[in-house]
Amino acid sequence: MEVGSKATRIRLFSIATPQMRAFHMTWFAFFLCFFAWFGIAPLMKIVRDEMALTQSQIGWLVIGSVAITVVGRLLIGWLCDRIGPRLAYTWLLLLGSLPVMGIGLAQDFQTFLVFRVLIGVIGGPRSPPEAE
User: Fold this and answer.
1) Is residue 56 a part of any domain in this protein?
2) 126, exposed or middle or buried, with CB in 10 Å at 0-12, 13-18, 19+?
3) How far from the centroid of its chain's Cα atoms is residue 8's Cα?
4) How many domains does the chain have?
């Protein structure tokens, strides 16, 4: 990258420069992943009551969603090397939106667990990849 194309000022409310557009898209993408990953936590009491989940089943939901983040990190790291961070993060958001929408359709523990584990992959990167 040439010195002339580096940001010299931070104009937080501007999207005029590529650097600020990348900054705003990155924090927004991170917010979406964070919201998707932690969005069910405040609703767990309601979900537990509605689906009659046991403490053991809730434990499986928590362990499954956290454990899969290791696989998510490995997958996203490999994808960043193969196709680049922009495409990898874009596909993470696109494919990750499907289980987020699907979890509302879960009727039993097994289906809820599958969607929760798939959502856990979104939490793998935890921090957005930098722009290429």
Assistant:
1) yes
2) middle
3) 31
4) 1
Instruction: Indicate the DSSP class of residue 13.
Output: T
pTM: 0.76
Rounded distance between C-alpha atoms, residue 23 and residue 117, angstroms: 29
Q: What is the pLDDT of residues 63-76, one digit of tens each?
A: 998 889 888 888 88
Q: Where are the beta strands (DSSP E) in the chain?
A: none
CB-CB contact of 70 with 121 (8 Å): no
- A 10 A CB-CB count for 88 gives 20
In a domain, 91, yes or no: yes
Domain span at 120? 38-132
CA 64 → CA 6, 82, 123, distances in Å? 42, 27, 12
Note the pLDDT tens digit of each residue in 33-63: 888 888 888 888 999 999 999 999 999 998 9
